[in-house]
Amino acid sequence: MIASSYHHTVNVLQAAAHSARGPFDRPEWFDLLARSEAPPLFALTSDGENAVALPLARANGRLEALQNWYTFSWRPIGSDCPALLEAAARDLRNHSHRVTMWPVPGEDKSADRVTAAFREAGWSVHCEECDHNHVLEVDGRSFAQYWQERPGPMRTTLKRKAKKVSVTILDRFDAASWEAYEAIYNESWKPTEGAPNLLRRFAEAEGAAGRIRLGIARAEDVPVAAQFWTVENGTAYIHKLAHRESAKPLSAGATLSAAMFRQVIDEDKVQWIDFGTGNDPYKRDWMEIDRPRYRIDCLDPAQPRAWPALAKRALAPFLPAR
User: Fold this and answer.
1) pLDDT tens readout for residues 153-175
2) What SUPFAM superfamilies does the record point to (predicted)?
3) pLDDT (tens digit, 9 = 90+) per residue, 219-270?
4) DSSP letters of 227-254?
5) What is the CATH number of the domain that holds 91?
6) What distance, in Å, lies between the first and last C-alpha atoms of the chain?
């Protein structure tokens, strides 16, 4: 017998998250989000042996994926059983007229599975690309082999400037180094950090688990660039990077990136490097594959509250482009 239940605490995810594939599938990640985002609603569907969980939140008059700007991907947690996911989607019609999920990956068929399940459950589903995910498949290469394939101007610049900075890479959380990262970020080209306390708690937990790679580049003993990566299950994740604008002529950020790539390729022996979401042009110099991320917007035609959005969706192809 398949049954669905709804919960506000992350403990329920333990029933579905036994095979988390990365940092954004773990209960610990959703626990961090639950403390800083909209109140969570964890939809759990089980047949007694297997379970699937949808980490959601009530926001903007609907149910939305429990995620934020640090999230590389969002997908159902647990079993891939189509019947379980369809049952979860069908029961959600009793709890909202609209469910919107993003950024859902396509390379593992998550977007296809979610879209199919919600359609079978009676939702009107619109799936569209909403973001980019740039990754590198190492494919057995050494760092030297990988580096030889980078753009010539990039390699020439680093050859000229690499000696002007020194690099330290830590595999543990260090409070002084994290404070240096925050100071560098505040003097960088980056926008104001969204949830710095959440990010620090995440870094502390990753450090305690031995997954962190925290890099600092210094010029004349002054920290000028910093990067926060993690490594697990054969993948390196690039979470944050920044350099002081005043140090831009030193190419300290690129020098630090090269050192971090060398660390995870030659020492950690990763198979993939994941640069997260966003389509910044510089990512194409370092990465080789551009994977789409999807937004899946589901409206229940049986509920009058969904009708205005359904009408707007139906008219969209006939309206002039903005």
Assistant:
1) 999 988 888 788 999 999 999 99
2) Acyl-CoA N-acyltransferases (Nat)
3) 999 999 999 999 999 999 999 999 999 888 999 999 999 999 999 999 999 9
4) EEEEEETTEEEEEEEEE-GGGGGGTHHH
5) 3.40.630
6) 49
